[in-house]
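About this split. The held-out portion is used to measure sequence recovery: a designer receives only the structure tokens and must propose an amino acid at every position. Recovery is the fraction of positions where the proposal matches the reference. Here is one held-out target exactly as it appears in the evaluation file.
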């Protein structure tokens, strides 16, 4: 599980300034059903294969959680024997805290592999009835609740597992499996960048999601979301850079560390470089962000909105007149006060700028990196898919 948790260290994943709801809103709009802790695509088949076996064995609702855990942790050894990367639980083994079914459940439901828009807990609670129910169509039609239970749990075209599953398994999808997953994504996630990328075998290039040919060749609604995500990610990239500059200065004032002095110089340079890139763009308009949030039901708190608007307004003032501002952002008192106040709003007395113990424990780079909206994980999943389609 440690290897999965390490994924949280990817750039742009840690949220220090309370922007996670906007980041996650873009992530879901671009790549629905994905998450930062998913590793390999074939887990979206492993999990239903396990549950279909438990259904066939008439496992009770009381026993399904324990039986599922045994079956899911039994995946670890054969995957480890095949020297695969991205194994969930390779270190934790049977004591694994977060099972693959938990990690991938939202994908299973969002992509329509699991045919009820319900939680794994709901599935477990109704497992006996879902597995054994054989009601007539007449009875089912009279009761929407019964109809929900009467519907098969898993998509009828779900490919069958290998005869010796899970022995000898790997993360390599067969062509049939890849075509099934591609079809689920294209049907259930139509009009998203994920759906366009799913069918784009051999067409992914190095770089962020907005650099992909599928992003440029998609419809206007997808391009609009991709462009706003790109612009937002650049615009707020300066926030954690300034925050870490403040931390480096504060800690250097306490202990005079040469390392922190070097960090101060480094962050000043990074902020100057970022400001030059920001100055090449038109002024960021937060109103477009709030329209996106409303359309995609992203909750934006009042303090979060005020912070973004204050940051945007001041950055526009600094870089707007000269289309530069390099070197001014890092020393701007208004921006410094804004970022410091934001940390105190979020963390109270645990703010690193106020809590000396937490400041001394700072690793030198808290939450830095441009938001990539799960792209590193999504790219790995798509690579698995495309290899299967080409098999």
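Reference sequence for scoring:
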């Amino acid at each position: 599980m440690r290897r999965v948790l390490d994924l949280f260290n990817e750039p742009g994943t840690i949220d220090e300034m309370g922007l996670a709801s906007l980041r996650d809103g873009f992530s879901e709009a671009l790549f629905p059903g994905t998450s930062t802790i998913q590793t390999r695509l074939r887990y979206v088949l492993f999990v239903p294969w396990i549950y279909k076996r438990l259904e066939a064995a008439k496992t009770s609702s009381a026993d399904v959680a324990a039986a599922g855990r045994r079956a899911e942790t039994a995946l670890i050894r054969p995957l480890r024997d095949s020297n695969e990367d991205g194994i969930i639980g390779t270190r934790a083994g049977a004591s694994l805290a977060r099972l693959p079914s938990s990690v991938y459940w939202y994908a299973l439901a969002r992509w329509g592999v699991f045919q009820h828009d319900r939680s794994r807990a709901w599935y477990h609670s109704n497992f006996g009835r879902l597995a054994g129910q054989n009601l007539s169509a007449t009875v089912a039609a009279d009761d929407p609740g019964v109809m929900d239970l009467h519907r098969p749990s898993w998509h009828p075209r779900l490919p069958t597992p290998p005869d010796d599953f899970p022995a000898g398994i790997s993360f390599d999808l067969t062509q049939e499996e890849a075509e099934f997953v591609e079809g689920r994504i294209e049907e259930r996630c139509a009009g998203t960048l994920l759906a366009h990328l799913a069918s784009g075998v051999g067409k992914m290039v190095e770089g962020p999601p907005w650099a992909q040919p599928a992003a440029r060749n998609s419809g206007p609604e997808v391009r609009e979301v991709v462009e706003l995500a790109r612009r937002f990610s650049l615009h707020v990239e300066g926030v954690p850079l300034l925050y870490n500059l403040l931390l480096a200065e504060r800690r250097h004032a306490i202990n005079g560390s040469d390392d922190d002095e070097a960090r101060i110089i480094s962050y000043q340079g990074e902020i100057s470089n970022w400001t030059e890139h920001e100055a090449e763009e038109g002024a960021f308009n937060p109103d477009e962000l709030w329209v996106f949030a409303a359309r995609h039901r992203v909750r934006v708190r009042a303090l979060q909105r005020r912070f973004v608007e204050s940051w945007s307004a001041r950055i526009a003032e600094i870089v707007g007149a000269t289309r530069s501002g390099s070197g001014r952002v890092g020393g701007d008192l208004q921006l410094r006060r804004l970022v410091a106040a934001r940390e105190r709003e979020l963390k109270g007395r645990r703010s690193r700028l106020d809590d000396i113990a937490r400041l001394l424990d700072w690793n030198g780079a808290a939450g830095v990196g441009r938001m990539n909206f799960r792209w590193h994980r999504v790219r790995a999943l798509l690579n698995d898919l495309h290899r299967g389609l080409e098999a």
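Annotator remark: Confidence is low (pLDDT under 50) at residues 1-9, 134-147.
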